[in-house]
Amino acid sequence: MSKFPSSIISFSTKVNGAVIDAGDINSPQDEITALETKVGKDGSADTTSLDYKVTNAASGGGGHVQTANKGGTGQTSYTKGDILAASSSSVLGKIAVGADGQALIADSTATNGVRWGGAGSISSTIAVSSVWTKPANIGANSMVFVELWGGGGSGAGAAANLEAGGGGGGGYASGWFRASVLSASVLVATGQGGASRPSSGHGQPGGNSIFDTQSSLLTAYGGGGGSPDTSNGCGGGGGGIKAQGGTANDSTPGIGGGSTYFSSVFGGEGGAGIASTISAYYGGGGGGAALTACGVVAQAIYGGGGGSGVSSSVMAARGGLSRFGGAGSKGSILGASVTSVLSGSIPGGGGGGSHGAGSSGEGGKGMVKISTFL
Fold first, then answer.
1. What residues does each domain of the chain span?
2. How would you class 313 by CB atoms within 10 Å of its CB: exposed for 0-12, middle for 13-18, buried for 19 or more?
């Protein structure tokens, strides 16, 4: 027994205001024709038909991929982790999931205005004295991590009858600060490297790097300059957590900015004829002396390495190294074809001494790095 009639037998009920006016129906075929006109069939082009509104991409209906300005997404497939973000007022785009541990970061340069990146941190490096502006979206309890390197001291210049010591490396300092204790704008000083010595004479100390110059919340001290001497020019002291490294005085090494010449864990060692091989930890490495200390300039862990000294016949193979700071430059016996020694590396490497014509190595510039954890 059929549940539905195989054809429309009669249509006699008239409903005033109906879409299909029963008064216009004269036969079962008229009924079918009227329905097809209103419902549509086989991709009808009639924009008033239901079929057109549901299936045609140019309509405002459903049943096909809808653009964002018509209530859809414009997408036909997704991968696990995909998110949608607008690239304009009418276009939604997919952003694939980031790596494990990453966070979604607002970025006006990205196509969709956001990107995946490091989880909630903003880092900036300040190479010259400037103003650090606290991020607008930072919370009162957010933490700010500041790292500073002082500038390296420059090496001494030595005439033909003198020996030249290397410059001390700049020290390192770091500190955590709650965002609520910091001003909206903080003045920052980045220590410059000690200037190269263009003729015979003492090297110049490196400048201090300071976070908040008005209250000196944190300071990394610069390294001292090297010294020329007739028998054994000495190296400048490395910058420490207490003070700037001392500039060497003839045959007296510059004192490190921690507490002692040779073994201060928190200061830099001053390079001397018996330079210590113990590494400065936070302080910069001391500059090397001209003779017996050549090749054993003090190393550093966080601060800059010391520059090496040089005599009339002996120069170190390299300057002092550093794990996280800049390396010191090696000294040079300068001939007519050589005009200068290379600078200490940034941040905070000490400059090497020079013997003969030309300029000594200048100290590497300091650095300020500020990381904000949202």
1. 1-64, 83-117, 120-374
2. exposed
